[in-house]
Amino acid sequence: MTAAARLLETLAQWGVEHVFCCPGTSEIPVLEALATRRGGPEFVLTTHEAISVSMADGYARASGRIGVAYLHTNVGVANGLAHLYAAQVARSSVAILAGIKGTATLPHRALTTSPRLLETAAPYVGHAWQNLRAEDLLEDLSRTLWHTTIVPEQPAILTIPQDHLTAEPGVAPPVRRGARQGPAAEAVRHSSALLDAARRPVIVAGSDVARRRAEADLARLAERLGAPVFVESRRDLERWSFPTYHPHYAGLFEPRAPLLAEADLLVLAGMPTPLEFSAEVAALPPGVPILHVSEDAAEPGRRYVPAGAVVGDTAAVLRGLAEGIRAPSRDEWLARVRKDSEARRARWEAEVPWDGEFSAALAMRTLADVIGGERLLVLDAVTSTLPLLRFLQRTRADSLFATASGSLGWGMGAAAGVAMARRERVLAVVGDGVVQFGVPAFWTVVRYRLPVTYLVVNNGKYQAVVAGLKKSGGDRAEYPLTDISGVEISALAQAFGIKATTVDDVDGLRAALAEDPEDGPRLIEVRVNDRLWQ
């Protein structure tokens, strides 16, 4: 049995159900093994490596399994790097297998061969290795898969020479998983004391709360502490981690909100240090002491020195903190924050009235009103995501996936991966710029009849760049290199075989969302004006 055939067996032993692949000639031994193999894993064909990686990422997030993408040589890896960065930011368990040319060509200037391929991918992974001997291939593969399960999870990459796939393999080691780390008792005691002493605490729910299914643990901590809970800001959000119906829910975290400056303890619960957009704009309220709960020991203190930190499994830490505090009454503080949250929502509703012009903000308010809190969502609409999150309700745990990476096009493939993992319809809210980056996803969702509804907010612009230009120099007659209009997105989708419709008002959007879609993909193009709401 060839190493390629044993490679497939090893993937199956690790519970890998799908491999997302845009193949080339270096993968021929694997394709030959697939032709004669019975059983999994299923190789899912994509027509661009970026889609392979984003599908693997979406699948990994939604399933809790390892998402595997098989890429072709240096050119395929290069095509997948942007979305590999998205997986890294999200701490997603993604394994990249890259088929490279045979070992005899590697020292030379051969076609699609780079002597520094692993250096290209290294900034975006936690483990990078090239298989050096055919007899070590299965060991190297298992080690690569294992590294994606080590907490904090990170992507990993293994390059595999073509001639090693046809050689006689060694023995695959047993399947093993990375262990989670329990929190140190002293750190929990110190942090509990900080919580006891605080009179105006605020909790920010990070993505690890959803990743570890710890929503109930966070709710118990908030209830015992009497603290309001915010969900990560739009810039940091990877998955939604707290139900909006909970009496302690206070909305999206906005660091510059005036009331937050009055807090005397900011609890970052299950999240990395917030991403900086610029050094001039504070990512956290200045001067407020921080208690940082993280699964990555490198995160607390990365940007702000915390008053306290607990490193360990998010669910275990939250349970330990809830048990360790005396829970003095903070009803007045919670009521003030909740009242402020309700006032902000009322202000947003007044700014985006139902009878106003059909802007992206009004389209997103309509969407939030129609879909309720249960729909499975993938968000990759740069300037439309914020208004959607402001109006959105979430009642279902771990049902929203987004990206803070800035890697345009991610949502097109990620939605397909989420649909494969959850086996239910996914609503992917994407921008028109995102579609133009991710067009190859259309072929794959049609080929595999995946239940994805793409809702495309089409304003004909790179609106985020327009916003940057306005902040830099104010309103102007022209915004260079921002006009991307001219594409009939519905017609483009129909060319791939997707049922598509175009709407341009609230009633049309409500009607389109009310339709019960058949199996397979669907697209709703929502044409809005170019008014930007932030």
Topology:
Layout: H1 3-13, E1 18-21, H2 28-36, E2 42-45, H3 49-63, E3 67-72, H4 73-89, E4 94-100, H5 117-121, E5 127-130, H6 137-147, E6 156-161, H7 162-165, H8 185-197, E7 201-205, H9 207-211, H10 215-225, E8 229-231, E9 249-252, E10 265-269, E11 290-294, E12 308-311, H11 314-324, H12 331-351, H13 360-371, E13 376-380, H14 385-391, E14 400-402, H15 410-422, E15 426-431, H16 432-438, H17 441-447, E16 452-458, H18 463-473, H19 489-495, E17 499-503, H20 506-514, E18 522-527
Parallel strand pairs: 1-2, 1-3, 3-4, 4-6, 5-6, 7-8, 7-10, 8-9, 10-11, 11-12, 13-14, 13-15, 15-16, 16-18, 17-18
- Helix vs. strand class: alpha/beta
What Rg, in angstroms, do the CA atoms define?
24 Å
| Shape estimate | globular
In round numbers, the mean pLDDT is 94
Total count of strands: 18
Biggest sheet details: 6 strands, parallel
Number of helices: 20
Instruction: Name the beta content range.
Output: 15-25%
Q: For the record, give the distance between the C-alpha atoms at the N and C termini, rounded to a whole number.
A: 59 Å
Strand arrangement in the largest pleated sheet = 2-1-3-4-6-5
Multimerization state: single chain
Uncertain regions spanning at least 5 consecutive residues: none
- Amount of helix: 25-40%
